[in-house]
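Checklist before submission:
- one chain only
- standard amino acids only
- sequence pasted in full

Submission:
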Amino acid sequence: MKATNLLFFVLMIYILQACKKDEIITPISKETFTFDQPATFLNPVYKYTNNPLTQKGFELGRVLFYDPILSLDSTLSCSTCHAQQHGFADH
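Returned file contents:
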Protein backbone atom coordinates (compact mmCIF):
# COMPACT_ATOMS: atom_id res chain seq x y z
CA MET A 1 0.00 0.00 0.00
CA LYS A 2 2.87 2.40 0.78
CA ALA A 3 4.36 1.96 -2.70
CA THR A 4 1.00 2.85 -4.25
CA ASN A 5 0.76 6.02 -2.16
CA LEU A 6 4.29 7.02 -3.12
CA LEU A 7 3.58 6.42 -6.80
CA PHE A 8 0.37 8.46 -6.54
CA PHE A 9 2.26 11.30 -4.82
CA VAL A 10 5.01 11.35 -7.47
CA LEU A 11 2.40 11.26 -10.24
CA MET A 12 0.53 14.22 -8.70
CA ILE A 13 3.73 16.25 -8.43
CA TYR A 14 4.49 15.53 -12.09
CA ILE A 15 0.97 16.56 -13.17
CA LEU A 16 1.10 19.79 -11.15
CA GLN A 17 4.47 20.70 -12.67
CA ALA A 18 3.09 20.07 -16.15
CA CYS A 19 0.24 22.50 -15.50
CA LYS A 20 2.58 25.32 -14.47
CA LYS A 21 2.43 28.45 -16.66
CA ASP A 22 5.19 28.79 -19.24
CA GLU A 23 7.96 31.24 -18.49
CA ILE A 24 7.69 34.44 -20.52
CA ILE A 25 10.82 34.93 -22.60
CA THR A 26 11.57 38.51 -23.54
CA PRO A 27 12.95 38.99 -27.06
CA ILE A 28 16.38 40.46 -27.65
CA SER A 29 16.32 44.20 -28.00
CA LYS A 30 15.74 45.43 -31.55
CA GLU A 31 17.87 48.45 -30.77
CA THR A 32 20.45 48.62 -33.55
CA PHE A 33 24.13 48.89 -32.81
CA THR A 34 26.59 50.74 -34.98
CA PHE A 35 29.99 49.19 -35.50
CA ASP A 36 32.77 51.66 -36.19
CA GLN A 37 35.10 49.79 -38.48
CA PRO A 38 38.79 50.46 -37.79
CA ALA A 39 40.71 51.89 -40.73
CA THR A 40 42.98 48.83 -40.78
CA PHE A 41 40.07 46.37 -41.26
CA LEU A 42 39.06 45.20 -44.72
CA ASN A 43 35.55 45.97 -45.88
CA PRO A 44 33.19 43.22 -44.73
CA VAL A 45 31.61 40.93 -47.31
CA TYR A 46 28.71 40.19 -44.97
CA LYS A 47 25.56 42.26 -45.58
CA TYR A 48 24.54 43.67 -42.20
CA THR A 49 21.11 44.63 -43.55
CA ASN A 50 20.18 40.92 -43.57
CA ASN A 51 20.79 40.68 -39.81
CA PRO A 52 21.11 44.05 -38.06
CA LEU A 53 23.70 44.36 -35.31
CA THR A 54 22.49 44.81 -31.75
CA GLN A 55 24.45 45.52 -28.59
CA LYS A 56 23.41 42.20 -27.02
CA GLY A 57 24.24 40.27 -30.19
CA PHE A 58 27.64 41.91 -30.36
CA GLU A 59 28.34 41.04 -26.72
CA LEU A 60 27.20 37.44 -27.29
CA GLY A 61 29.55 37.14 -30.26
CA ARG A 62 32.44 38.40 -28.15
CA VAL A 63 31.72 35.88 -25.39
CA LEU A 64 31.45 33.00 -27.88
CA PHE A 65 34.64 34.09 -29.68
CA TYR A 66 36.71 33.82 -26.50
CA ASP A 67 34.94 30.72 -25.08
CA PRO A 68 37.04 27.53 -25.43
CA ILE A 69 34.15 25.20 -24.62
CA LEU A 70 32.98 25.39 -28.25
CA SER A 71 36.03 23.42 -29.44
CA LEU A 72 36.08 19.65 -29.70
CA ASP A 73 38.15 19.16 -26.55
CA SER A 74 37.14 22.44 -24.80
CA THR A 75 40.68 23.85 -24.84
CA LEU A 76 40.80 26.24 -27.82
CA SER A 77 38.73 29.32 -28.49
CA CYS A 78 38.46 31.11 -31.83
CA SER A 79 40.76 33.78 -30.39
CA THR A 80 43.57 31.22 -30.07
CA CYS A 81 44.24 31.46 -33.81
CA HIS A 82 42.35 34.62 -34.77
CA ALA A 83 44.26 37.11 -32.63
CA GLN A 84 42.94 40.62 -32.12
CA GLN A 85 46.37 42.18 -32.68
CA HIS A 86 46.38 40.63 -36.18
CA GLY A 87 42.97 42.04 -37.14
CA PHE A 88 41.36 38.72 -36.11
CA ALA A 89 43.08 37.01 -39.02
CA ASP A 90 44.72 33.63 -38.68
CA HIS A 91 48.38 34.58 -38.23
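Reviewer check: The first helix runs from residue 2 to 18.
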